[in-house]
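From the shared-data thread, chain only:
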Amino acid sequence: MANDHDNLPAEVALRFNDCINNRDLQGLAALMTNDHTFIDSVDNAVRGKDKVVEAWKGFFDTFPDYQNIFEQVESRNGIVAILGRSICSEPQLNGPALWTATVRGEHVVEWRVYSDTPENRQALQIGAMKNP
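Structure, as C-alpha cells:
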C-alpha cells in the first residue's frame, strides 16, 4: 500500500470495509478509535469501540452474506466519501448506498451510512472531492 499521506484516509476506509466484508471483528476494532461512532442510514448511532464491535457482531450473525462494493472513493481533510452498493439477501440492505468515514491518523473515528439520494450525493460532494 502506498505511503502517500493524501491517500491514507481512503486507504484506511478501504481496509475498514475489507474487515466488514470479511466479518473481521478484530480487524475492525484495530481500525477504530476508542470513541468510534457508527451511524446508520436512519441516523441511529452507536458510540464507543466496544459497543460498536458488539453491534457489528450481531449484524454479522444476522446478515452473514452482507458485503459492500465501492465504486467511487474520494477524500478531503480526513473525510472519505464513498459511492457504492451493498449486497445482502435482506432487501432493505441490498442496493445502492453512500458512506463516509472520518479518519484520524490510521483509525476510523466515524463510519456512517447514507441512502443514495441526489440530496445526499450533493451534501457529500460526491464527484467534487479529490479521487485517491
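Residues 74 and 131 are 4 Å apart (CA to CA).
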